[in-house]
Amino acid sequence: MALLLCLGLTAALARGCLHCHGNFSEKFSFYRHHVNLKSWWVGDIPVSGLLLSDWSQDTMKELHLAIPAEITREKLNQVANAVYQKMDQLYQGKMYFPGYFPNELRAIFREQVHLIQNAIIESRIDCQRHCGIFQYETISCTNCTDSHVVCFGYNCESSAQWETAVQGLLRYINKWHKQDDHTRTTPAFLMSPSFTCLEPPHLANLTLENASECLTQH
């Protein structure tokens, strides 16, 4: 019991994408406190308990994303429901033979990591399919706070749409550069080498034509 209590406290301090879901605490509290009923071999209990207690922080370690771990609420719900369904099915069974239960937990964990990776990347791709500046609301997997992602999409259907998109981008960049360096966040698309021509030294004399040429050279 002391071991399970310790594991529960450790999990409460962790952060990760699934941890941001409203049912996470209740679900994983149940999983941790019933882990001792799932294996014939006593050695499986601490191993499985550790997997569950470190679930969130291990998720963050395994994501390996080149972009911030920010997920939409809709996709977080989809991932969470998929994980809970798998876990509930696993817990519906009787006691398992030695080694089976922790191996199944690892498999669910790996599948969850892939689901989160795909969800975050798919949202970024969908964002870039727009024309011009686009923003969507997300949750930060690091601290579970509300966040948002800003991207610039090249999917414009006419020269007029493209011109409007570039004008919107220039307004956004000018506004962004005026923000406090210590509090502003840099959108991922502004880190691209193709945007060096839109940095502050070039903005004063930048024409719409030059900006358009800069963007189409990415």
From TrEMBL:
Name of encoding gene: IZUMO4
Family note: Belongs to the Izumo family.
Keywords: Signal
Signal peptide range in chain numbering: 1-16
Taxonomic placement: Eukaryota, Metazoa, Chordata, Craniata, Vertebrata
Annotated organism of origin: Acinonyx jubatus (Cheetah)
Keyword Signal: yes
Name assigned to this protein: Izumo sperm-egg fusion protein 4 isoform X1
Cellular component, GO, one term: nucleus
